[in-house]
Amino acid sequence: MQLQVRARLPHREGVLKIEEPVFELASNPMSSSSEFQVEHASCRSKWGRNLRLQVMLRLVLYLWLGFLAFFIGGYLSYFGYLRRRAKGSWGFEIDPKFNPSISILVPAHNEEKVIVPKLENLKEVSYPRDRMEIILVDDASTDQTLVKAQNFLEGNPELRVRIVHQTKRQGKACGLNAALKNCSSGIVVVTDADTFWPPDILRRALPYMVSSVVGAISGMGQAENADQSWVTNAEKSYMDMMSTWRLGESKIHSTIRFEGCFCVFKREAFEEFDSESGADDSGTALRVIQNGYRAVLVPEARTQSEIPYTIMNMVRAKLRRAVHLTGLWVQCLRLLAGKRLKLPKRIAVPEIFLSLFMPFIFVVLVCLTLLVLVCYPIPFGILFAFLGLACLVPKVRSLLVQGILHQFILCYAVILYATKKKFVAWER
Questions:
Q1: Over the stretch 314-342, which tens digit does the pLDDT of each residue have?
Q2: Which of 60, 187, 260, 349 fits a disulfide with 102 by CB distance 3.0 to 4.6 angstroms?
Q3: How far apart are the first and last CA of the chain?
Q4: Is residue 326 packed enough to be buried (19+ CB in 10 Å), middle (13-18) or exposed (0-12)?
Q5: Where are the domains of the chain?
Q6: What is the Cα Rg of the chain in Å?
Q7: CA distance 38 to 296
Q8: Distance of CA 116 to the CA centre of its chain
């Protein structure tokens, strides 16, 4: 479209009258409006995308902060609670003069390297010989375990030792149940063949069994080779923390986190050792609790044993243990749902959540951490650099490695349990 503007000059005499174009304006309003709308829409689109990106980045950051606070807060709150309770009183009678007759059960499978030192260790225990019998359970060993044990006993007739030999391998729990049928005492003590006691352990621990409310006690395992590698050093820190954990639960009521290094059970408190869950020690402790007794950790009962010094062996051992405990916490969850669990809820609920659900929250936290590191590379890169420097401190490095490893092991253990994965007792 062309817009023409003309001007009429004034008529004068003798001058030709003309009309002359002054200017001509060419324009296209439709085209100009369209271009403006396109540019405006493009700017608005870019602004919208930037806004959505900013919202998503903030959402990722807030989610990461929320999961991190929930994860750390969950563990710290429960551990802090247990740490306070660990300083409290027991609430039941303890008699230092209590020296009952006991039966010591020693299960063994291919333990030729440690069976003689173990029997020598039991020989040195300061407890009346007439109140102590030892039952050695050989679970179809294929090495010289049985022969070496018999040779030792021939040279030490003062020890009251009976041997129960299983010709077919049936597992630790079945071996313990076979030995249980041969017990003549009302107090049963279980100890692993590769664990060694201090001489006064029985005099320190058995006074806790005098109370009618206590049905089982467990000892506190310590790493004999804690300084052998960074793996054993890290495990020592973890064992110290778990000792406080177990003691706090014991002061509240009970803990099912028993260890095979030293366990004592009243014969009246259970029918037989748990051979279903794979955790004969912790599983039997749960049975004791369900029968109306308490199962507690005795901090004075300390034992020594060697722990794996390589990361792969450590992971295998912890994974096997975690799968068994996972089965027990699932069992507790079912009993809790059916209102039949006698372990107090203030212990059972946190333990069930931390063992079965928190590991998957940790996996989500790890994914969010990687995403946040990508979205905010500079600030979080600096943060993780400082964290790396903090790991130069051995204590910090040990706790961090054990904490991360523990969560992944728990997560994998739940998956293995769900897929019916089983582990053989004494598997090396």
A1: 889 899 899 999 999 999 999 999 999 99
A2: 187
A3: 94
A4: buried
A5: 102-309
A6: 36
A7: 76
A8: 34
How far is Cα 1 from Cα 149, in angstroms, rounded to an integer? 114
Sign of CA dihedral 355, 361, 364, 366: negative
Residue 87, SS3?
Answer: coil
The whole-angstrom separation of Cα 358 and Cα 75 is 9
Distances (CA, A) of 180 to 35, 173, 279: 93, 10, 17
Q: Pseudo-torsion of CA 383, 389, 392, 393, nearest 10°?
A: -70
DSSP codes of every residue in 351-413 = HHHHHHTHHHHHHHHHHHHHHHHHHSHHHHHHHHHHHHHHTTSHHHHHHHHHHHHHHHHHHHH
Q: Contact, 43 vs 27, CB < 8 A? A: no
Pick from 219, 223, 193: which is nearest to 121 by CA?
A: 193
Q: Please state, in angstroms and rounded to a whole number, the distance separating the CA atoms of residues 249 and 84.
A: 11
pTM of the model: 0.82
Give the rounded distance of the alpha carbon of 316 from its chain centre. Answer: 14
**Which token pair is 246?**
């177990």
The C-alpha atoms of residue 233 and residue 39 are separated, in whole angstroms, by: 65
Q: What is the CATH number of domain 102-309?
A: 3.90.550.10
Q: Using the CB atoms, write b or e for 115-126: b if 16+ within 10 Å.
A: bbebbebbeebe
Contact 365, 71 (CB under 8 A): yes
Mode of pairing for the β-strands spanning 214-223 and 294-305? parallel
Provide the 3-class DSSP secondary structure of residue 33.
Answer: helix
pLDDT in tens, 104-155: 999 999 999 999 999 999 999 999 999 999 999 999 899 999 999 999 999 9
Provide the percentage of residues in the chain whose pLDDT is more than 70.
Answer: 87
- For 95, phi then psi, to 5°, come to -115, 110
